[in-house]
Every structure is written in structure tokens, then in C-alpha cells.
């Protein structure tokens, strides 16, 4: 194994402290990412997913983008509205989502499967009626597809905008094909498995979407979130606007982004793009790196896409 590259520069140290305060390691649900040796988990080190999900700036901005998209679906939003303490504990919700995505990506197989079963059991108890009288259930295959696609789309866009390398089309298709296994394990059906299918799906579902009072309230709460980090307001503005910059154009129109908001998105996107290398350098021992070591591999392998062998 390679040795540590030396003392960490002050900016990297500050960013490391920021990340660990926002997303403490103790939220990892007790998962040991270093053992058992040789366990590849659900995806393994050759997967595109291991590379996309290893990039913190793209994943956090992408996660916020996905939340914004999800506020536009009345039934999906009703499940959050009726069954979530999002007003009181939005930070906790973000941390739990982060732990689930990280765990199902990198954890040993048994731990990843346990996380999926736990979420399935939670979903089974979530039922209700949307604001316009439509019944919903958290394990509805259609809603599971919507939540999955918005997240996968946003994570991929986050990597493309803020990540360390371009994403070839074959890798984007492989990513969508890989991550659909999580949605399917949760109960989704007919999950898009390529860029073309995701594009078609988003076009087909747009007629069901709506920007209403509930959407505005959830976005208001999201826009006032206070992460337990230094400069919380500045941090929120940076990642919120960098996340909004990832939205498809039609979503920005639905959300009624003003010219001033769009200008802030461009500034935030450029700022996060500039800070992204320092964020990456500040997190040399995260769960992606630990998982590589579980398999006797150097984390540097995540810095390039490996085309599938013919």
C-alpha cells in the first residue's frame, strides 16, 4: 500500500473538518468497510458506481438537486410531507440518505442487503393521500422509480459538473444500468437503465409534476437548513445553488428560478468546481478508499474509468 502523501495543507484540513462535522463518521450505521477482506459488495471496484459515488462535491450537490426535483411530484412529496420530520430534522434526513447511498454502494454484501431490507420495512408502513386526494404508498413501484431516477440523474450530473474527469457515454449508460439494482431490490419495476431511457422517462413523467404550496414549503425549509459547520449560511448557499445548477432546464422553469437565482447558480457552480479538488484531497480515507483496501486495491483506481473488457 502507498504511504500517506504527507501533511495536509490548511485548506484541505479545514474542508475535512467541514465534511466530518456535516456528515460524521458515526452515521455509518456501524458498518465495517475494511472487512471481510475480499468482499466486493453489491457493485465491486470495477463498477462505474464506485467512481461516481466517491466524489463528495458532486454527490452532495447532486443530492440537493434530487431533493429539488422530488418536490415536484405530488405523491412523492406527500410521503415526505406526512411521514417525515423534515421541518425539524432535515439535516438528519440528509445524513440518513447519505449513509444509505454510501452503504449500499461500498459496504460488504451482507451489510448492504441489510440496509435495503431495513428501508423496505420502513416503506411498507408509509401510506396516505396526497394533497389532491390521490392515494400513495412509499413502496409504490412507480414512486420508487421516480425517487431512484431523480437521484441517479442528479448524482451523475454532479459528477459531470464537479467531478475529476469526463464521463464517457458508455460509462453513463453503465452507471444507470448498475444502480437500478438498488431500486429493484426496494420494489421498483421497469427501471431505466441507460441515458436514453432516463431521458425518455423524465419526459414521460413531466405531465404528473406540479409546483405548488407544498413544494414551496419544502424548498423554503431546504433553503434555510443550518448545517452544523463553520460558515453555515455560506456553505448552504454554495451547495444549494451548485445543486440547483444541475437541474434540467424544464425543472428550473417549473421552480420559477429568477435571473438573479440563475446568476447565483452559475457563480456557485464555478466556485464549487474550483474547490472540488481540495475537497477530494481532504478526504483520503473515506469509505470508498476503505472499501478498495478491503479488496487489497489502491484507491487511486477510482480516478479513471475502466471500459468493460470485450
Question: How would you describe this structure in keywords?
Answer:
mainly alpha; 310 residues; two-stranded antiparallel sheet; 2% strand; globular; 2 strands
What can you tell me about this protein's structure?
By secondary structure, this protein is mainly α. The protein has one domain (10-23, 43-299). Helices cover 62% and strands 2% of the residues. The model has no long low-confidence stretch (mean pLDDT 92). A two-stranded antiparallel sheet has the order 1-2.
Helicity range? 55-70%
Order of helices and strands: HHHHHHEEHHHHHHHH
Strand order of the largest sheet: 1-2
Number of beta strands: 2
Biggest sheet descriptor: 2 strands, antiparallel
What is the 3D form?
A: globular
Short recap of the structure:
The chain is mainly alpha-helical. Helix content is 62%, strand content 2%. Strand 1 and strand 2 (135-137) form a beta hairpin.
Q: Layout of SSEs?
A:
Elements: H1 10-22, H2 48-52, H3 56-70, H4 74-83, H5 86-106, H6 109-124, E1 127-129, E2 135-137, H7 141-162, H8 169-186, H9 195-205, H10 213-223, H11 232-244, H12 249-254, H13 259-281, H14 287-294
